Amino acid sequence: MRALRSLQLALASATLVFALEQAPVASAQTIYNTPYPSVIRVAIRANNNPTSPILYVQTVGFEEYCEDVLPNEWVPSWNPEALKAGAIAVKMFAWYWSLHPTTEGGFTYDVDNTTNFQTFKYLSGQVATDLAVQETWNMVFVPGDGSIRPLDFRAGTPDGSNSGYVGTFIMSQWGSQYWAQTGKLPFTTILSLFYPGYQLRFV
Prior knowledge:
Shape: globular
Order of helices and strands: HEEHHEEEHEEEHHE
Structural class: alpha/beta
Radius of gyration: 22 Å
Strand content: 15-25%
Number of helices: 6
Helix content: 25-40%
Number of strands: 9
Distance between the termini: 62 Å
């Protein structure tokens, strides 16, 4: 009887292991199974101050949000290739955080309107930056597996190559302008400088 019981337990254990091995694994969020969000929730802090309390949460169309952010993070008069690199970075950053919302003080949001995330000022779009967003809207810059990652960026040093950021997965905004204007590089190469191994894909 004891031997039979041991055999039954062994079979049950084997069945459980097989079931676990066959259980579907939750899919990672990639460009192949996750569309752009239609809207994004922006926590509004007074005076765009990153330490101010949240006043309210504003829901904005996702493309409109990207168009409003870009001229606050990249200078609208910069080279169009720098603006395109910025447009893709702003979009990928926002897309990632729309998939990883935050709850604070009773508010649930995707991003706020400050440098905690990206500087957002409603209806601040400009012709040149709007165009950069629109021209790159069906383009993404991702690792080889297509996973949706935030393309981080920092201001860097004005009027320089900001080579210290190259290969760090953090783009220098001023560096993007340098490589576009002085280095004559297209936006795809600029992105590759700062995010090595990532690839341009179309969605």
